């Protein structure tokens, strides 16, 4: 029942543990007026200030690598944090400059935003191999821009639950697909203004759901692409649930934990499904415009 | 306590396993602007690309038939998928052309949309016996249109939780009622734009709820009309929960699993409650208009 | 810790099982345009057509009385159902005429709506002793109108979780307070248009929560005022959960199940807390107007 | 893994049990039109009328102190309740005058609102040591205003999950950070108008989640800052769950329960992280304005 050509020898599934370090941009990209809300800003700053160090400790204890996606805006203001994460053996990856969704930009604006973040990472001196769109809101140009910059993978699209290739004018890139059901935002984000979520799920329920997903994905040869946010999962009981989840993955014995970069590297030359990335053509007036 | 005249010999309830293969139309029918959102489109394409094959494997393992409701737009673009499903012994049924709700169309527009889908199915060469309105949003004309096309059943209305007849100018049709509580959309759909849902329920909780519904329906002689979507239930842990649900139904021993068409056929000549299908007359100004 | 003067001899709490038979008015009072939505109308008609008979069977099996609150509009169209319920020994009570909230009416409009429902009940020939506002949205005039019509109780306000008296110009009435946490609407109502809810909770979780509430209320000497709706709780697994909840109440041994009328009668002459019912005076411009 | 310099000798964490006695201001601050809604007003009055006495009984039984944050508007109308709480050994603290969020006021308006509440507390004769912003919506001026009035702590910001200092022009104050995940509002608040919440979580699930948070916080040396509301947690089964939660805290043996004032006093002279409290500077046009 599985199409497991992509799996490492002996593996039934692969896990990537990823953290989007959105900090202030997680709310500023929703509404600049968020800057007037001191509590909301403090809520976001918990991520880099307390969440990241706490999660780094847990990752070190468990001896697993992770991938940290940084908006350029956040990396620019906290270069020491970026360096500390990289020095601990984790991957730093590209999460746009401003966290504003690419779907609300022109193609030129998206290119400028993308390049600006690349400049920030170059200034800090960390190598960048992959990209994730802010809010996963990739445009129809995004994979091409990723390829233009010589990055090897993207992690924003959801056509499959295992790696696939996306064809672009600049050659194919690897897609490492995330999914809403493996994101802590949908479980834990609660903030009335800007309204970024209204959920506070019991971490033990989230843990049970994600353990079951690991088990199901081992059956189908899938990629367990976990997307977490330090301002959310860095909270005490959620950090403990994260630790227990990784323990479950390690206990399985056949689910290697890889950085996105490491996984993308291993997939070079491997036969993967190939997808076009083209906007569907719509017959005029067939579908309504919500306006 | 049951009105079980409609039940097959020895059955306490009947189960229909249905899949609405909405693919892209699941979001385009909410807002044409969804076409600009590459991730959202990929999220929907997972349904036919990965979800349907995975679910077909599970159905084959369990040896149960299912009914797949296709919007004509989706069938037109994926005739091979339609044929593959039909060749596996499952029913293909009518789910409008565009998935735009009939309640937002004039009667003429609804008739044209309905006929256009019939043409698609005729071109592919699959027989069509029944219909389900997009979003279940049947109009006061819908049953009449179903009857005009010679189809024998509809599956959009909720007056009962067992089959009943709806009178139309073109003669009665059988209604096989669905319900919100037996739809995976309300459990699993999460997409911010177009905003089609904000729920990510643990599949094991959904499984527990639906198993209890099967058990309760055996007491009342009801129709367990399950409505699932491959872009949702095709995800790994949800597919496993679906498999376990069907296992529970089969273990009961007195809940036959039938296609909608097969069930409607068996009900020909059987005494069923008959309902009119007429818009309620409202006294002017008694109820407010939300505008 | 309890103020239990109101409790019947030997009782630790009292339970009232109430059903609001809103039928079509449950959605028409939100938006008259609901009449165009055939599925939504069918969804509401399930209440009187299937839900009420099913629940009457369960109540008869358990030998407990209930109170059925009818909007006059619904009673007018289904007098036989009203008579059947009354003939089974249950109470029929007043739930406005149109189910449109009193807070969106002038005082005169509310009086006319109230009187119109009284006329319907008089025509059918059922005695009326109490009232519940549509959506519990009592106005500052509502208790006075209840007293003017000679009714003895209202069940819309939430100042306490045990019976109390509300002073009105026409003399005090008894308030039998409901609460959002003991209403099935918040647990089970899901309908996108009119959007009356987005919840589909597992009935077994609702059952667990309400059993715990019964137990806690026995400690505090409270009134367990259950508000259910046949279009919701009449569904198979929910009806079974309702039956189990009543079983739990009966098993307690010290929680008598009374109709609202019976309870209000017993409270005549009993010392209860008395509350004024007066709109708070607001300093101009202190609080914002959402507009 | 902990930074536990702030913890009392032998303690792994500290718990503050706080109640925001919002009463009518909980809805009036959302919309003055709430005053027209008699049921909504009664829903809020349950807090001081029934909830507070019930919770005081539970606190007395458990022999633990709590902090009650009062909007000045509420204290002004219920001085006897304020005195009764203080006489029972609990702390009274400042929760703005009107409960209108400071982020919707000018700095001058916020100062006037703050001072007006101080006057109310002075008139009643209760000492005030700390402040919590309405809805936690502190402005960039709030800590300075707190310091200007000689108060020693604030409890509105979320940069850490242990006490820290916030620098202000008038000297540093102690921040005792709350969090959305430890507030009963997100679990229990349900009211359609004004729409202040749509959640009715099973109290036993809330209890399980908060017990796990206590346990996790003992590992990280955190402050368990519980924010509850008498109009919510004063309901029967929720009050019982609160009692069980405190029992869990006491059973731990290393989590002292302190008032906010007592904790802030103990932190005088203790080395704590220091944070600036400055609005982030935003590049023009980088982030969108939702308007």
Automatic annotation (TrEMBL), chains A, B, C, D:
Q: Which residues form a coiled coil?
A: none
PROSITE patterns cross-referenced by the UniProt entry: NODB (PS51677)
Q: Which CDD domains match?
A: CE4_HpPgdA_like
InterPro entries named among the record's database cross-references: Glyco_hydro/deAcase_b/a-brl, NODB_dom, PgdA-like
Q: Which Pfam families match?
A: Polysacc_deac_1
Q: Which residues form the NodB homology domain?
A: 37-257
Instruction: Using the record, list the residue span of the signal peptide; answer none if the entry has no such feature.
Output: none
Q: Where are the transmembrane segments?
A: none
- Put simply, this protein is called Polysaccharide deacetylase
Q: Report the source organism.
A: Pseudonocardia zijingensis
């Amino acid at each position: 029942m599985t199409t497991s050509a992509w799996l490492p020898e002996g593996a039934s599934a692969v896990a990537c543990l990823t953290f989007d370090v959105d900090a202030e941009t997680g709310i500023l990209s929703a509404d600049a007026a968020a800057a007037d809300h001191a509590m909301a800003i403090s809520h976001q700053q918990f991520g880099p200030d307390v969440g990241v160090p706490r999660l780094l400790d847990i990752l070190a204890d468990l001896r697993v690598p992770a991938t940290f996606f940084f908006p350029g805006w956040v990396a620019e203001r906290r270069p020491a944090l970026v360096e500390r994460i990289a020095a601990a053996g984790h991957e730093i990856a590209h999460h746009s400059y401003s966290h504003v969704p690419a779907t609300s930009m022109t193609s030129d604006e998206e290119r400028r935003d993308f390049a600006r973040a690349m400049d920030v990472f170059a200034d800090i001196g960390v190598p960048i191999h992959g990209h994730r769109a802010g809010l996963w809101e990739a445009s129809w140009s995004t994979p091409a821009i990723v390829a233009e910059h010589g990055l090897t993978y993207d992690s924003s699209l959801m056509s499959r639950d295992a790696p696939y290739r996306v064809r672009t004018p600049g050659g194919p890139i690897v897609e490492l697909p995330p999914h809403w059901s493996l994101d802590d935002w949908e479980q834990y984000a609660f903030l009335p203004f800007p309204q970024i979520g209204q959920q506070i799920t019991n971490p033990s329920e989230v843990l049970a759901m994600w353990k079951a997903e690991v088990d199901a994905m081992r059956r189908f040869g899938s990629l367990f692409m976990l997307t977490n946010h330090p301002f959310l999962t860095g909270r005490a009981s959620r950090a403990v649930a994260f630790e227990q989840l990784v323990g479950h993955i390690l206990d399985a014995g056949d689910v290697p934990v890889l950085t996105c970069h490491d996984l993308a590297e291993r997939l070079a030359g491997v036969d993967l499904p190939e997808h076009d990335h083209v906007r569907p053509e719509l017959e005029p007036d067939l579908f309504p415009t919500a306006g």
